């Protein structure tokens, strides 16, 4: 089996992989609408959370379509064998319903294919493009 193949979506009533927004929300009320194209995330934080969930589920299509075309690589691939294990939002600056830009600082924990734990700590930049939030890239990647 391809270790990068998309995983099945969790049951709609399951806790969302991103931790739920608002806290503890079910998958159907949190990231599922974004990943199934039913609705675009209305805030930068919700887009970031949907992108984290896309990493968990290895949904490369969502990662590609939510990455600003000016900064995204030609191909977006899920991390081979990486298991994402948790998300913590540290800070949010702007990125709301009326904003054009936003910053979300977060920590995403993971387990490498060899079992070693790791953490990505990023200050991520988001902008609106055609009235939709898009991931622009890291403002800063911290250790």
Molecular structure report:
The chain is α+β, with helices and mostly antiparallel strands and 143 residues long. It has a single domain, classed as Roll (Nuclear Transport Factor 2, Chain: A), CATH 3.10.450. Helix content is 17%, strand content 33%. The protein contains three helices and four strands, in the order αααββββ. The chain has a four-stranded antiparallel sheet with strand order 1-2-3-4, covered by helices on one side. A hairpin with a 2-residue loop joins β3 and β4. The longest helix has 14 residues, at 44-57. It is globular and about 40 Å long. The mean pLDDT is 93.
Give the overall shape, derived from the CA principal axes.
globular
How many distinct domains?
Answer: 1
Q: Please tally the β strands and state the result.
A: 4
Give average pLDDT, whole number. Answer: 93
Distance between the termini: 33 Å
Topology of helices and strands:
Layout: H1 32-35, H2 44-57, H3 60-65, E1 83-94, E2 101-111, E3 117-129, E4 132-142
Antiparallel strand pairs: 1-2, 2-3, 3-4
Summarize the structure.
This protein has helices spanning 32-35, 44-57, 60-65; strands at 83-94, 101-111, 117-129, 132-142.
Question: Which terms would index this structure?
Answer:
four-stranded antiparallel beta sheet, Nuclear Transport Factor 2, Chain: A, alpha+beta
